[in-house]
Each structure stands twice: as structure tokens, then as C-alpha cells.
Amino acid sequence: MEITSQGQETEQAIVTSSTPETSQEFNWKNCWYPITFLQDLPKNRPYSFSLYDEPLVLFRNQDGKLGCLIDRCPHRAAKLSDGQMMDGKIECLYHGWQFETDGQCLHIPQLPKDAKIPTNACVKSFVVVESQGLIWMWAGEGETSDEKTIPTILEFNNSDFIINDFMTERPYDQTYVIENLLDPAHIPIRHDGFEGNRENAQPLEIQIIETSVEGMRGRYRNTKKPNENWINLDFVAPNSVIYHLYDTPKSGYYLGLALYSLPLSKGRCRVLSRFYGNFSTWKIKLQPRWFSHFYRNLVIEEDLPIAVGQQAQIERLGQSLKSLYFPLKTSDLYAVEYRKWLDKFGTSLPFYQGYATSKFEIIDQKTNPAIPLNRFDRHTKICSSCNRAYQVTKSVKQILVGLAIALAALAILTDDSGISPVAVAASLSAVALAFAAQKLKTKFEDSHTHH
């Protein structure tokens, strides 16, 4: 159904789901979840993550094959991710039990050499594959997995396109992440000065073309100027949001943004963003990946306190969004339709907030402390490029501080010679460079605040 900018701008004016009334339920286990970018997977050590509060561990064997296991040793419940890699097997650090990528136990040091390893000394495994630079896991039983259903974008295989990857974690639930990503109307206001300009805030013409158990397909455009280009905006259940911009900023240009989310736990979600386009590719190629992430973090950090406060308010009030929200058809159609999608199809999800229904428990802050908002915990420690640049910056700063002290001491010791002024100047230069390194270091650690 086509939505125009005419008529009453209330929730009643935007009830436009094209979904048949027949009841269906989305099976959250029988689908693929993004874990990390291939370039951000550490080498030669286990990689821990979680899915809906279930701890998991990812690793490679000697042949480069990926394995994904429950992060719990069957012996005494120690975390396998705290262990190490031994000859391509993951070894529990507690008693040295070793496991293959399929979860089979291959070595127990405490067993006699002629003893057979018990068949139940194994760990549940999950299918995990690489696709277009991303690592995906299938949350259901392995025999039901189908690699053809992994979300793919044809442009990623086109050499004319350049891709810029960025990964961060958000301290709120996946449904609030996706609602935010499906909300183009907030960009001119909240991101004024970065990705938006408040002068461009305006009514949007929004169309929901199709809604089904597989997600939503739609498009929107600005209305201030006539004949504006449409921007396609799709939600692919359960975790992907994709923007397609054609002939922008001029004819023949194409710009896309694919956002994949991983619900780590209650109150915590990982988002893997892929910006791609076929213009200004040389600028992106010349720019270090870690440097581009400074800007990406600035934009994300403008939304963080808003979404955290939004979820806290809704959970405190304990009311449905239908009674709390006053949506407009010229800005909120995507967000409301997504929440209604959860009402209709998402009831099997471990936790969610729909428009009229929900399934969640209030977090006990005594046992579940708040997720840090700082940039280091949300991004730097899980991004290989930023983590490497951060470690180099720390080392350079320490070296410069030591050099400044040594040069100052040299200046004192040679006070009556011509060496002293040179040593003093060099010491001051080292101090200035150390200060610059410290400023750069904080960009990897601290969040930007914007009001």
C-alpha cells in the first residue's frame, strides 16, 4: 500500500501491513547470524562471543577450517575461550582437554594411554561459514543449514565497488538497534553537523512494499523538492537492514549500506556495518581503516545515550509501545511496521519488544552491571585495525616519554656545554609528540559526547 504525505499524521494513518492474517512464527534458530568480519578474527587463539546470552567460541584448526562450539568444557564447565590453540585443537586451560572443530574430544591428559575417550566427552558444535568477508553461524541443527540463505549483496563481488567495514557493540537490545536503523527521520536532527543537517528535516514519503515472515521491503524519499530519488530500505529477518541509493549523488552512482546485527545478550547487541559504493573509491583506498572508524564512532555515539534512555524508560513504565508512542506516517512508518512484525512473527525470540506485545525481563543491575559506553570496550578491542593502531600509539607514547626524560637528564648533566640547549629542545619536542600520541590514544578509548 502506498503511503503519501496527505491526511492525519497519527498512528491510525499508518497501519499499512501487507502481511496476510494467517499466523506464522519466525524460527530464530533456523537462520544465519554474523559473528565478525574475517579481517577482525584473531589468528591462533580462540574468539569468544555470545548469541542470546549463550556463550560461544570460534576458532580455526590446522587446516584453516572454522569451528564454533558452546563455550563450556564438558569436564568441569570452564570456558574454552580462556584456553589456547594446540596443534589446531582448542585446549581447555583447566585440565588440558582438547577439542576439534566439530566438538569431538581428541585428548584427555588424565586418561591412561590405552583408555578410550568417552563418547559424551564432547561439546555441542554449530555450522559456521565464511561469506563475502563475514563469518556466519547457523544457530539451529547442522542438517537444517543452507548456505544459499546467507544474506549476500551482488555489489560486494563487483570490482568497481569499494567496501568499508565497521563493527561496534551497542548497550541495548537488538530490537532497539533495528528500530534506530530503520529511522531515517532522526538523521537531520540527531546527527546535525555530522551525517545530517537540521535544515533538511522534513516530511518523508514512505512506502512499505511488502511484509512477510522473511522481513520488510520498502522505500522512502524527501518531499521538500519535487521528484526526489527513492531510497530503498529493507529489513531482512532477523538481523539485517539494507539501504540502497541509486543515482546519488549523481546519475550512474550507487551507494549502499548493509547493517548486520548479532544479539549478544539482553541489553547488548553487535552491529557489523558495510558501506559500499562505486564512486570516490580512491579516497577510501588511501584512508587507513582505523582512521575512518573515528568518524563512524562519532556518529554511533550520538545515538547511544538516546537509545539507552529510550529502552530504560520503556522498561520502567512497563507499557506497550502502542500506548507510549505517538508516531507520524511521514517519519515513523518503518519503525512501527518493524515492531508490528515482531508482534506477528517474533514471539519465539528469546526476548523482544513489539508494538503491542513483548517478551523481556528487567536486568538485575547487581548481577548484570551496565554495559560500558566507552569506545574501547564497544569497538577498539574487537576491531583488528583500531586495536593494532591503539597498541602502536601506546608504545610510541611510552617511548617518547622515556626519551623526553632521558634528554632532560642529558641537558642537566651537560648544563655548561653546547649540548644542553639541543637536548632541551629535543626533550620539549618529545614531550609535544608524546602529548599528540596521548590525544590520539584517547580517540580509541573515550566516547564523543554531543548535545
Tell me what the structure shows.
The chain is α+β, with helices and mostly antiparallel strands. It is built from nine helices and 20 strands. The chain has helices at residues 174-181, 187-190, 281-286, 289-317, 321-324, 333-345, 375-378, 384-413, 419-443; strands spanning 32-37, 47-51, 54-60, 66-70, 84-86, 89-91, 98-99, 105-107, 125-126, 128-131, 134-138, 162-170, 204-212, 215-222, 231-236, 240-246, 254-265, 268-277, 352-353, 358-359. The chain has a seven-stranded antiparallel sheet with strand order 12-18-17-16-15-14-13. Strands 2-3-4-9 form a four-stranded antiparallel sheet, with no helix packed on it. Strand 19 (352-353) and strand 20 (358-359) form a beta hairpin. The longest helix is centred in the last third of the chain and has 30 residues, at 384-413. The chain is globular and about 85 Å long.
Short description:
It contains nine helices and 20 strands.
> For the CA atoms, what is the radius of gyration?
26 Å
What is the residue-averaged pLDDT?
Answer: 89
Q: Which CATH architecture of the largest domain would you pick?
A: Alpha-Beta Complex
Number of domains: 3
Any idea of the CATH topology of the largest domain? Naphthalene 1,2-dioxygenase Alpha Subunit, Chain A, domain 1
What's the level 1 CATH class of the largest domain? Alpha Beta
Helix content: 25-40%
Number of helices: 9
Assigned CATH superfamily of the largest domain: Naphthalene 1,2-dioxygenase Alpha Subunit, Chain A, domain 1
Segments where pLDDT lies below 50 for 5+ residues? Answer: 1-22
Biggest β-sheet: strands ordered side by side in the sheet:
12-18-17-16-15-14-13
The succession of helices and strands, N to C, reads EEEEEEEEEEEEHHEEEEEEHHHHEEHHH
Number of strands: 20
Distance between the termini: 38 Å
> In this structure, how is the largest beta sheet organized?
7 strands, antiparallel
Coarse shape? globular
Given helix and strand content, the structural type is alpha+beta
Strand content: 15-25%
